[in-house]
Write a structure and sequence with these properties.
Blueprint: E1 2-4, E2 51-56, H1 64-79, E3 82-87, H2 92-104, E4 109-113, H3 118-127, E5 132-136, E6 146-149, H4 154-167, E7 172-177, H5 182-198, E8 203-208, H6 215-227, E9 232-235, H7 240-247, E10 250-255, E11 266-272, H8 275-287, E12 306-308, H9 318-333
Parallel strand pairs: 2-3, 2-4, 4-5, 5-6, 7-8, 7-9, 9-10, 10-11
Antiparallel strand pairs: 1-3, 11-12
Length: 349
């Protein structure tokens, strides 16, 4: 669906939800560039507010990852910094046509997720070197105008792992995720490391459903983990928390906080905030300093891009809350660094 507040656009013949197919380019994901290091290229002309922004999403706005980007852009629109139009549920066969249309229509900044459609997105960006692109990607930026970002919430994920490690009585935790790619792997590995740090006896069951949105499949995988003895579940995918609620076990959330929808089930959540990234990019478009860069580090806790949802003392013992908050402070103060491990996790049960 195409929606716009600043102008009327024709509807596109969009395909079904793209599953963010796992992409292998060249020999794997490129190493992340250090925050603030730019790759050069011609300077962009300064823009005046409101900046014309278009977004292209391969999934629906209801999908947690997409919802965080949309929320940040809506906040920028409410401030008067941008005008904002978007397309959701854009299939891989339609993506190039939609992104090219927005470029031709004069969008000054194009935002989206290009997992699985890296080649067509970068092809269009090369054809419009004076348009700024900010895309969720496992790969690196391309000068002069293709910047990237990702959700680096491994730090609060480690903290939620500590909560889970203290909460389990069976010493078995089940993890259910979409695909074994860097974005999911690093969160799962951080969660597992956090759990082990407080409970060396804990074991894990790992399941990938090979889909970015299939709640029923995720639910069945979660039931299987519970049948193996898991009394805490890591809900990287929608549907896992439903299984936890149905069987009376606990769950840990990721990306968004769903504790209000699952009271008594969600005991901790690692949250992603896209606002710091969006605010910086928009300002750089306005002042003419935008260039290809990796904005992923703006998702770190120190930048306000990630956080631990408030812990409920009715569900988490006070001494555990104190322990977790002490570690959170160490992370924010730079005294503890959560390992960034993107290797595929394996079951240890």
């Amino acid at each position: 669906m195409v929606r716009g507040l600043s102008r009327s656009l024709p509807l596109f013949a969009l395909g079904a939800i793209d599953r963010r197919h796992v992409l292998v380019l060249g020999g794997g994901a490129l190493a992340l560039a250090a925050m603030g290091s730019f790759l050069g290229g011609p300077a962009f002309a300064a823009k005046t507010k409101p900046v014309k922004v278009a977004a292209i999403y391969t999934l629906a706005l209801a999908q947690p990852w997409i919802s965080r980007i949309h929320k940040a852009l809506k906040a920028a629109e409410a401030r008067g910094d941008i005008t904002y139009i978007f397309s959701e549920n854009v299939g891989s066969t339609d993506y190039e046509g939609v992104i090219r249309h927005y470029s031709q229509e004069g969008a000054e900044l194009i935002v989206g997720d290009v997992f699985g459609v890296e080649r067509p997105a970068r092809k269009v960006a090369a054809d419009y070197p004076k348009t700024a692109f900010l895309m969720g990607s496992s790969l690196g930026p391309t000068k002069p105008n293709f910047a990237v970002f990702d959700d680096f919430i491994h730090e609060p994920s480690y903290l939620t792992g500590m909560v889970a490690g203290r909460a389990t009585r069976s010493n078995v935790i089940g993890l259910v995720a979409g695909y074994p790619i860097a974005e999911a792997n690093r969160l799962m590995q951080a969660f597992m490391a956090g759990a082990r740090s407080v409970n060396p006896q804990v074991k894990f069951t790992i399941a990938f459903i090979n889909s970015w949105y299939d709640p029923e499949k995720a639910k069945e995988a979660a039931f299987a983990a519970i049948d193996k003895g898991a009394d805490v579940l890591y809900a990287e995918r929608s549907g896992v928390t439903d299984a936890a609620k149905a069987r009376g076990v606990k769950a840990v959330g990721s990306i968004i906080d769903t504790s209000a929808q699952y009271p008594g089930t969600i005991i901790a959540s690692a949250l992603w905030h896209m606002e710091p990234t969006i605010e910086r990019v928009i300002q750089r478009v306005i002042d003419g300093s935008f260039t290809a860069a990796d904005y992923g580090p703006y998702s770190y806790m120190s930048e306000g891009g990630a956080s631990l949802a408030p812990l409920d003392p009715k569900l988490v013992p006070p001494e555990v809350i104190e322990e977790v908050l002490a570690k959170e402070k160490e992370i924010k103060d730079g005294f503890f660094r959560v390992p960034l491990n993107e290797t595929e996790p394996a079951s240890t049960l």
